[in-house]
Amino acid sequence: MTTKDLERIPIPRDKNDDYTRDAAALRRAFAEERTGTVLEHVGQYSFDPSLLPGNVENFTGVAQVPLGLAGPLRIAGEHARGDFYIPMATTEGTLVASYNRGMRLLTECGGVRTTVVKHSMQRSPVFELNNALEARTLGEWIDSHFNKIREAAEATTSAGKLVEIRNYIIGPLLYLRFNYTTGDAAGQNMVGKATLAACIWIQTNHPHRPHFVLSGNIDTDKKHSQMNTIETRGKRVIAEATISGDVLKRIMGVDAETLFHVRQISQAGAFMAGSSNNGAHSANGLTALFIATGQDVANVAESQAAIVYAQLLTNGDYYWSITIPSLVVATYGGGTALPTQRECLDLVGCYGAGHINKFAEICAATVLAGEISLSSAIVRGDWVSSHDRLGRNRP
């Protein structure tokens, strides 16, 4: 094999304007020539590629995901109030049907109560000192200069607000956790830029000019962590409902006492496994909602963590709550303004500024519907049969 045989063949790009139908068609033709695969469906889309700078590079076409509608889901939240029809983009048969069933149950029982209890988005730089004493001293210096550091950070953004800086020391390393609120944006890039400006201010103004690395990984961006479960990343949102024992039996075919008994078994299993979620499958509903509404789907990695708390009430009813401590979502920026994604956000009245808490509550209420439906299916014994009936598209 010669050097020429190993020559890299780059994907074609238009240096003047790479976001056009012609540029996308050129890349499809290139891929077809190189692989022999015809990209007929990838090339069918309805929007102008000029909308895409900032969302994707080397635009070639679309990956179409089927969209189902579930609901109505009645929510009695602080921000989300009324009956909602939830767009869910998925390729998993039974998912929409299952969530739809849970939404019916919750709605017939009066709906879901929801509330956002905390907001926070982080960056976690690390300053490298000569020893632990210097690290502690720098942390104290940062505490005493917080207002100046905040000014430097907030000068880079109109929406981000620096709330606090926490510090954690390992040997000569000072790990900092900058906590922000970010308006209607998820805010990871926003707080990255703000934290860089803050760290440069610290480095410039501290007499020792300490070296820093912008990310020390304790913000655990797009990764689950116990720290974020405790301290919050994104939105900490809770959905709760009191479910009538009679309605539960009529719709789900299970009784509250048996459901609570199985919840105890499931709780012990999650503890033994060291799971980040003692519920059933919150990632399912969140992923389907994220794809439909233009969220950064990788944020499901942290958003799926959840804590279920339930009570069997003395009157035979069932109290069920789910707390999502790290829900990272947006109603503005990123992929939310793309045409189909914006339409899906408009379906639930959440596109644009001023709707982030409402959308967070809708996400949590949707998760609760899915938890109730799947848990009931497992207890009743129709979990596998439902997948056989609705989830098989193979001969």
TrEMBL record:
The question of whether NADP is a record keyword is answered with yes
What's this protein's family per the entry? Belongs to the HMG-CoA reductase family.
* Entry superkingdom: Bacteria
Q: Which GO terms describe its biological process?
A: coenzyme A metabolic process; isoprenoid biosynthetic process
> What is the name attached to this protein's record?
hydroxymethylglutaryl-CoA reductase (NADPH)
The taxonomic lineage of its organism, from the top, reads: Bacteria, Pseudomonadati, Acidobacteriota, Terriglobia, Terriglobales
**Cited PROSITE patterns:** HMG_COA_REDUCTASE_4
Q: Return the EC number.
A: 1.1.1.34
Q: Which InterPro entries match?
A: HMG_CoA_Rdtase, HMG_CoA_Rdtase_cat_sf, HMG_CoA_Rdtase_eu_arc, HMG_CoA_Rdtase_NAD(P)-bd_sf, HMG_CoA_Rdtase_sub-bd_dom_sf
Q: Name one GO molecular function term.
A: hydroxymethylglutaryl-CoA reductase (NADPH) activity
Class of enzymatic activity (EC top level): oxidoreductase
Q: Supply the alphabetized keyword list.
A: NADP, Oxidoreductase
